[in-house]
Amino acid sequence: MKNYLPLEKEAELLHNIPIGMAYDGSGDFYVWQDRAKSKLRELLGLDKFVKCDSQFKIKYKREHKTFTEIKFVFQSEENYFVPCILSIPTGCDGKLPVMVCLQGHGTGMHITMGRTKYPIDVEKKKKGGDRDFARQCIKRGVCALALEQRNFGEKGGNPRPTCHASSLVALLTGRTIIGARVWDIMNAIDVLENEFSDVVDCEKIGCMGNSGGGTATIYASALEPRIKTAIPSCAFCTFEDSIVLQNHCECNYIPNIRNYFDMAEIGAMSAPKPMVVVNGVEDGIFPIKPAKYEFERLKSYYKAAGAEDKVAHAVGSAGHRFYAKEAWEKYDEVTENV
Hints:
single chain; 11 helices; 9 strands; globular
């Protein structure tokens, strides 16, 4: 007879629960995908979010040597405004692809721009981590949309993220913070279409992020058809081996989700769009062994979708960070001829 602590009991229950909406190979994959997306929207509480006027406003426009920087805000829900920075490479002809760039649990979207505001930013920059997604995109001739995620940076995290209270309060009304972040991304794409279609090719929108930004990327890519490519970093693993057994922020938890899906199912909702999953071999909160196991499950889903060559696993040699060289090499492979 065992005598569990509460977490041990909950973990045992989760371990023994089958993935209720896993695709079993019978029937049309895309019929399954549509049903899965509908259930995921329900679990995230996206039906609780109400569309409103964007009240789009440009805060400033600055010319740099290699890009033009436009900071703007828009309203994604009544009385909730999202700060963004759009970087447009100079010297390029025609409309350009755009990548939505999402930071994780840190001090804000300025990290995406390669900038520092706080001592912790300077310390992390010295250690490396390739988190300057916008600068990487600019060098590749791609526009970068840095978006301030809820509870980070200007939206509640100066300088530390403030996910705890809002994550728990959201659950009281059937909402989730992941759902809110996905909602903001969807509405940011509306802004791109409505305000920047003269410079941005809205048929070529990607999404990338590390850690909490990677998590938002996985979910947003699953549910937003206008996102055509995705690079989620240090956010992909089995629920059991990461969200359950490691110390994670409250914003990661979605009621009932493991009754229906694991991460491979959520990733599979993006098929056949190109996706590069990024992990680090020494990442302590998204362990590499179960991450590789879950990636193989994801790859089997892409195979069922007839797109096995559109998904790749980029594995870095260190911990919880982005790996630019490995990720972009894989990205170029999966997006070839796209």
